[in-house]
């Protein structure tokens, strides 16, 4: 039986201690960001840089100090992962070889505006940090979409530029967006999905997909290309409607988790030879072998402004031994862009609403 009672809340941090805490974390991330920024072209002005990419997201969504530059509106969750041991012959990672691994996660809306209504975008995301007993971490960010719109960082940047507001109207130019998709046929699978995708009424009933490919590595050094997704173990009855209001997703999550733990099954899909492992815009064919790697169990929700997930950069290339990134160029870009976003928002911590309230107390 699971103890569903909540532990005493953490005492609020003073503004000074909060700034020091985040500054210490930022030093470590700065070093990592430097490495990924180098391989991602920061030192070459002719190539796309993390700064350039985050700048266009800010241009499209506005600047909201202290918040992530994308997937800004979210909620923290705490729980653990129960391994089925089914993936242990493919990977030496402890998360697949130990019975239980603690998890700190975050659900979020697919928008760069923390004040956006929950019905503003059909995409929901789940980010997780698994902390193994040996201290190594696995961080993963998954989305409800099955494929990514484009296959390269440059194409993603051009998509953001096409969606930038026209100074004359304050809104994106539909012709620019149409022209972009007309010149990027790799977006067809994503467009087919988005045409029928509807904003869900709950984070809890969504499937979440890694989209990018990775490798599992076993004790013999054998590498197996994989993608993974989280599948909810409980589904609502069909025909439900999206509630009115701006913040129904967090409210729904808090109500459901108060009633008992929430569970997802981690499915790991094994690529066949010839399946694309460096192109997130392409789905793998049906019929691939799927491992039931275990169960994610979420037991507690926390506000994102003072919850445990606030200080975590869910960099998809923070991986334990036994899991490796593929050569998908979007992975290095995500890593570098997340670091740039992280450094910006942690430097703005004094502007967060919670920090202001603490400073006044």
How would you describe the overall organization of this protein?
- The chain is of the alpha+beta class and 361 residues long.
- It has a single domain (15-235, 245-360), classed as Catalase HpII,  Chain A, domain 1 (Beta Barrel), CATH 2.40.180.10.
- Helices cover 30% and strands 21% of the residues.
- The chain has 9 helices and 10 strands.
- It has helices at 15-39, 50-61, 94-97, 153-162, 174-182, 188-196, 248-259, 329-347, 353-360; strands at residues 74-83, 100-109, 124-131, 137-143, 208-209, 214-217, 223-232, 262-270, 290-303, 323-325.
- Strands 1, 2, 3, 4, 5, 6, 7, 8, 9 and 10 form a 10-stranded antiparallel beta sheet that branches.
- A hairpin with a 5-residue loop joins strand 3 and strand 4 (137-143).
- Helix 1 (15-39) packs antiparallel against helix 8 (329-347).
- It is globular, with a radius of gyration of 20 Å.
- The relative contact order is 0.21.
Short description:
The chain is an alpha+beta fold.
Cα distance spanning the termini: 40 Å
Order of helices and strands: HHEHEEEHHHEEEHEEEHH
Give the CA-based shape.
globular
Overall average pLDDT = 85
What's the CATH topology label? Catalase HpII,  Chain A, domain 1
Contiguous low-pLDDT stretches (5 residues minimum) are 1-45, 355-361
Q: Count of helices?
A: 9
CATH architecture, by name, is Beta Barrel
Main beta sheet, described?
10 strands, antiparallel
Tell me the domain tally: 1
């Amino acid at each position: 039986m699971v103890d569903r009672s909540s532990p005493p809340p953490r005492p609020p941090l003073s503004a000074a201690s909060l700034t020091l805490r985040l500054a210490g974390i930022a030093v470590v991330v700065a070093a990592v960001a430097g490495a990924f920024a180098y391989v991602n072209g920061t030192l070459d002005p002719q190539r796309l840089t993390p700064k350039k990419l985050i700048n266009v997201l800010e241009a499209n969504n506005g600047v909201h100090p202290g918040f992530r530059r994308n997937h800004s509106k979210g909620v923290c969750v705490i729980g653990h992962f129960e391994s089925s041991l089914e993936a242990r012959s493919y990977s030496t990672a402890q998360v697949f070889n130990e019975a239980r691994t603690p998890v700190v996660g975050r659900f979020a809306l697919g928008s760069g505006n923390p004040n956006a209504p929950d019905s503003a975008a059909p995409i929901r995301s789940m980010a997780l940090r698994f902390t193994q007993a040996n201290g190594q971490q696995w961080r993963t960010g998954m989305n409800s979409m099955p494929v990514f719109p484009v296959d390269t960082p440059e194409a993603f940047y051009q998509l953001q530029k096409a969606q930038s507001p026209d100074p004359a109207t304050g809104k994106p130019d539909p012709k620019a967006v149409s022209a972009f998709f007309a010149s990027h046929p790799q977006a067809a699978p994503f467009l087919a999905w988005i045409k029928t995708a509807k904003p869900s009424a709950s984070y809890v009933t969504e499937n979440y997909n890694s989209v990018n490919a990775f490798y599992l590595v076993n004790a013999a050094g054998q590498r197996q290309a994989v993608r993974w997704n989280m599948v909810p173990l409980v589904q609502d009855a069909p025909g439900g409607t999206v509630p009115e209001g701006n913040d129904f997703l967090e409210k729904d999550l808090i109500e459901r988790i108060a009633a008992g733990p929430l569970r997802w099954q981690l499915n790991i899909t094994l690529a066949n030879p010839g399946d694309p492992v460096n192109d997130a815009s392409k789905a793998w064919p049906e019929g691939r072998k799927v491992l039931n790697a275990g169960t994610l169990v979420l037991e507690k929700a926390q506000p994102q402004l003072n919850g445990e997930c606030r200080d975590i950069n869910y960099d998809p290339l923070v991986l334990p031994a036994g899991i490796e990134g593929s050569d998908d160029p979007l992975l290095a870009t995500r890593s570098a862009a997340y670091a740039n976003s992280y450094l910006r928002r942690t430097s703005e911590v004094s502007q967060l609403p919670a920090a202001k309230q603490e400073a006044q107390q």
